[in-house]
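Contributing: when you submit paired examples, paste them exactly as shown. First protein:
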Amino acid sequence: MAPPRELMSPRFARALQCAAASHRSQTRRGSDVPYVEHAVAVAWILERLGFGEDVVIAGLLHDVVEDTEVTLSQVDAQFGPEVARVVADCSEVKLDSQGNKRPWMDRKRDHLAALAGASVASRAVVLADKLHNLLSIELDVLDGRPIWSLFHAERDQVLWYYRATIDQLGTGEVRIEALADRCREALTRIETIGDPTGAAATTDVP
C-alpha cells in the first residue's frame, strides 16, 4: 500500500497565508466575495487534477505579482524558482513605461504571445484560472448580475480571449486537455445564455 499523502505541508500553509494577506483588500468582480476565493479555487482544481505542490502553490499565488505589491523575487525567495517561473508566466504586464494602465486588448494579445511554448505547469495554472473565471461569469449571468458592464472590453472580446487562450494552451497532455474541455463547456454555456445588456466595461477591479 502506498504511504498516505501529506494533507497539508507547512510550505502550502505559508502560501495560503500569503495569498489571503496579499489579496485581503480585493473582492471578486462586481461582488463582495473576497478575491482569495478565486486563488483557492484555482489551487483546488490543480490539486484535483493531480498536479504537484509547486503547481498547486503557483495556482494559489498566480495573481499576487500582477495584482498586489508582492514581487516575483519575493515569491522566488519564499517558494522557489519553479513556483516563481509559473507565476511569472501567469502575470500580464498591466502598466506601460509611464505607469499608465495599458489597453485591455494589448495586454491580452501580448500575454497570449508570451505564453507560446509555455510549460505544462504554466498552461495548467492559466487554464485553471480561466475555468474558475468562466464558472463565476456563468453564475453571475444566471443570477442576473450585469457582469459584462464590469469588464474593460465588450462581451464578444472577452469571449474571444477565453476561446483563444483555451485553444492555444489546451493540448498536448491529458490533464491539460481535460481542463480545456471543461473550459470549453463552460464557455459554450455562457455563449448560449446570450447578452441581455450589451454593456461595455468601466471598472478597475482586477
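Second protein:
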Amino acid sequence: MELLGHFTVLLGFFFLMEGVAWFTHKYIMHGFGWILHKSHHEPRKGAFELNDLYGFIFAIPSVWLIVAGSAEMDWRFFAGLGIALYGLAYFLVHDVFVHQRVKWLKRTQVPYFRAMRKTHHLHHSVHTKEHAQAFGFLFVLPKFYRRYSRG
C-alpha cells in the first residue's frame, strides 16, 4: 500500500506541474519574468537562451524535496521526483520535439503530437508578452486538438 501511495504522490506532482507551468508561463514569464522569457520568442543565437534559466528555477523545489525526503523516503522524495520527471518530459517535448533543439522526431503522424507542436507554434506567432495564447506544455486543450491534429 505504501508503494501505491508514493506512486500517487509522484503522479500527482507530475500532473500538478502542468498547472504550475501554465500559470508560471502565462503570468510570470509573460509578465515580470519577460526579461528572461523574451529570448525564447526571438531567434536563438547559439545553443542557449536566457529562458533556459527557468529550468534551473523549476529544479530548485524538486531538488529540495528530493533531498529533504531522501532520508525517510517519504512523500517529499516522491513529490520532488514527480517534479523532476515533469522537467524531463518538458525538455523532451518542448525543447527536443517542438523546437527541435536536438534534431529528433522531425516528422510525426501521431495526431496528438502534431497538435502539440502546432499549438506551441501558435503561441510563438506572437513575439511580445501580450496577446499570446496556448500557455500549456504537455496537454493540448481540446479546441487546439480539433484545429491542429489533422495533417
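If you have annotations for the second protein, write them as plain sentences, like these:
Residues 93 and 138 are 7 Å apart (CA to CA).
The mean pLDDT is 92.
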